Q: What sequence folds into this?
């Protein structure tokens, strides 16, 4: 039995040997005959090394030709990875070179282990070394084997922090972005646009990389250059932004916010008029953030776009430590403190009374107001819903809605008989409460108001060429269900779309959510007679290599346009009839120029006092104030909004400002817009735009303070009417 067992084992082993021999023979035949070409390529790869040559990134200019994003050639010390594979050799070399590079050994080792750097490319040890350091290392190549000097580009922002939210910055490719950029043939250690125009137009600005292919020996030493393909520079880009007005908008916004922080928002009163002891006697506005937009309402070109808090985009290329970066850009869940948010395109806001012109248009365009613009409603300070039975009201359903309080009576303001025009001038809430109820209940509970305001772009992205745009949200049954499913509102509240929802919607409150750029686009449609423009911050994409002109400028006469965006881009045309538009524009004009209503005593238009010292004959404008109620309806949580447009067709501008937790629209946001139109009218002169001082690496703030040199444009005579 033992002999049989042994023979069986020998047969099995023999079979395995034959099988292995067949596999080896087959593989050899495949490599030598079928895959001979591929094998040769892999052998060739081992004998060669390819070094990528990054192109010069396209530059960015403002509308006047100022260079707002430039490039500086820098020297980078690299090392051939094959030289430092052995841990002992690597340690010795890193210790020797850490002195000349003034870089700790731990940082060099961290770079070696980091996945950020392409494992097939030389490892960058330090960027931005001096000519002296580069020469020192070159002259001592025997002491630093595998070390080389490459030329790279560093991004410069000469006017930072001006327009940082628009221009953006470069950053390392994030881990979650790596598959996308690797598919586009990027090197993992490239820097890419991570914000603003730098991100949106990355494919144009980057250019096309080149490469050098070297023949190397078994030790990885270069024997000769086999091939060199030069990189192609990226396209230059010209912005629609005018840095003069951009800087002025940022200064006006920051100045107004900081002035509001000194203002008492008031306290909470009990029904008998005494102070509620649960609250302090003095409560200053927090005024933490805001934004403003100046838009050409015919072409859609954004002339200025300010967002506060601002930041200096030079920090992202400054080489600061991660600890310093966390100090400057701390992680926070408090939206008031968020820095890296362009609030003009990403802010999610109630619009308050600035939304009323579109409610008025919906009522006029659908025939909801009997008699159209001549319809008169007697405003008595409160409005009781007509569609809710008294029994339901007695059960706790909110049926009575009030105007804002008048300080003279400490009760809801009463305006008496008002039509569309006068209701806009004094911002009568009850007039619009009535529209909000009846445009729903008298039309079969169909979403008429939602459909009408969508014509102006609300509820949809504007298509602006900047990242992270919020598309807005309009109150609806579907939205309420979604919010209930997400836990944002109660299941009971999410069951249906109620009359009260539409009433709040009509005055720009409730579940309405929009951005300042959406508001600017909507007002632009009123201004130009019905064209809903696509806002954009890039005027043209240029052929690479635009020549320089005077100091800090390019030679505009020698720009070569590759893609032109100067022609207005229209999303849609609203069939806006004159009889529907005129009363709205007239009401908005009265907001600025005056003529309120007289019912017992004269009620001023909401912007009348503020604009008394504005030379309206130079540049007549029409606009609307708005106050968006905040958490708990406490006055210090109210946000300030204002939107206006020029009535001069030769200066077709729309301006919007939104200041968070800053109080009434006439007292915080409206002054910012007034300053912008005062500058456009030549009443005030913006400060000259000059290159920034070098960044202070010891600074504790992400952006220097920007104040108006002359803040008088923010003031009016005798204060402002509330709204």
A:
């Amino acid at each position: 039995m033992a002999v049989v067992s042994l023979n069986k084992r020998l047969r099995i082993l023999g079979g395995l040997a034959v099988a292995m021999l067949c596999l080896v023979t087959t593989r050899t035949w495949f490599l030598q005959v079928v895959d001979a070409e591929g094998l040769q390529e892999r052998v060739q790869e081992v004998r060669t090394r390819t070094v990528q040559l990054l192109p010069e990134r396209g530059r960015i200019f403002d509308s006047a030709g100022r260079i707002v994003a430039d490039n500086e050639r820098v020297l980078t010390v690299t090392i051939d990875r094959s030289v430092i594979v052995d841990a002992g050799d690597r340690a010795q070399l890193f210790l020797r070179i850490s002195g000349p590079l003034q870089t700790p050994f731990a940082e060099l080792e961290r770079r070696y282990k980091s996945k950020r750097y392409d494992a097939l490319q030389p490892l960058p040890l330090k960027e931005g070394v001096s000519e002296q350091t580069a020469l020192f290392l070159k002259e001592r190549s025997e002491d630093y084997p595998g070390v080389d000097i490459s030329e790279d580009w560093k991004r410069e922002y000469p006017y930072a922090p001006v327009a940082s939210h628009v221009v953006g910055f470069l950053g390392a490719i994030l881990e979650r972005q790596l598959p996308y950029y690797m598919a586009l043939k990027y090197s993992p250690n490239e820097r890419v646009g991570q914000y603003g125009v730098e991100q949106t137009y990355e494919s144009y600005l980057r250019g096309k990389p080149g490469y050098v292919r070297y023949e190397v020996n078994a030790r990885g030493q270069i024997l000769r250059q086999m091939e060199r393909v030069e990189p192609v520079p990226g396209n230059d880009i010209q912005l629609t932004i005018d840095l003069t007005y951009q800087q002025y908008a940022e200064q006006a916004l920051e100045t107004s916010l900081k002035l509001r922080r000194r203002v008492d928002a008031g306290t909470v009163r009990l029904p008998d008029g005494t102070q509620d002891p649960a609250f302090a006697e003095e409560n200053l506005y927090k005024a933490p953030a805001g934004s403003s937009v100046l838009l050409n309402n015919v072409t859609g070109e954004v002339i200025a776009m300010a967002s506060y808090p601002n930041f200096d985009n030079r920090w992202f290329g400054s080489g600061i430590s991660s600890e310093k970066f966390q100090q400057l850009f701390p992680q926070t869940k408090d939206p008031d403190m968020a820095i890296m948010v362009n609030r003009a395109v990403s802010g999610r806001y109630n619009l308050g009374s600035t939304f009323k012109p579109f409610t008025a248009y919906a009522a006029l365009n659908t025939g909801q107001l009997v008699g159209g613009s001549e319809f008169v409603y007697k405003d008595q300070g409160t409005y009781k819903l007509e569609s809710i039975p008294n029994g339901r009201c007695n059960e706790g359903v909110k049926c009575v809605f009030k105007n804002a309080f008048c300080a003279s009576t400490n009760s809801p303001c009463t305006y008496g008989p008002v039509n569309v025009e006068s209701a806009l001038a004094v911002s009568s809430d009850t007039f619009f409460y009535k529209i909000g109820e009846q445009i729903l209940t008298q039309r079969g509970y169909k979403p008429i108001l939602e459909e009408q305001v969508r014509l102006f772009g609300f509820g949809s992205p504007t298509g602006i060429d900047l990242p992270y745009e919020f598309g807005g949200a309009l109150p609806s049954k579907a939205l309420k269900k979604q919010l209930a499913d997400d836990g944002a509102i109660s299941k009971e509240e999410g069951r249906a779309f109620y009359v009260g929802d539409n009433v709040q919607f009509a005055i720009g409150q409730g579940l309405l959510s929009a951005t300042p750029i959406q508001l600017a686009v909507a007002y632009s449609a009123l201004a130009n007679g019905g064209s809903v423009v696509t806002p954009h911050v890039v005027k043209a994409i240029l052929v690479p290599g635009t020549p320089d002109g005077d100091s800090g400028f390019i030679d505009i006469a020698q720009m070569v346009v590759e893609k032109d965006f100067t022609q207005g881009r229209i999303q849609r045309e609203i069939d806006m009839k004159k009889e529907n538009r005129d009363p709205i524009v007239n009401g908005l004009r009265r907001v600025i120029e005056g003529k309120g209503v007289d019912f017992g005593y004269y009620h001023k238009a909401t912007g009348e006092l503020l604009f008394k010292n504005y030379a309206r004959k130079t540049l007549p404008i029409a606009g609307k104030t708005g106050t968006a109620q905040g958490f708990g309806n406490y006055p210090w949580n109210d946000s300030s909004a204002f939107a206006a447009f020029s009535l001069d067709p030769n200066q077709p501008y729309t301006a919007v400002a939104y200041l968070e937790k800053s109080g009434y629209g006439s007292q915080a946001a409206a002054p910012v817009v007034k300053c912008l139109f005062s500058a456009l009218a030549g009443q005030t002169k913006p400060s000259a735009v000059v290159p920034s001082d070098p960044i202070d690496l010891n600074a504790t703030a992400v952006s220097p303070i920007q104040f108006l040199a002359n803040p008088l444009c923010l003031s009016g005579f005798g204060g402002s009417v509330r709204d």
Notes: The chain has a mean pLDDT of 90. Residues 101 and 376 are 79 Å apart (CA to CA). The first strand starts at residue 48 and ends at 53.
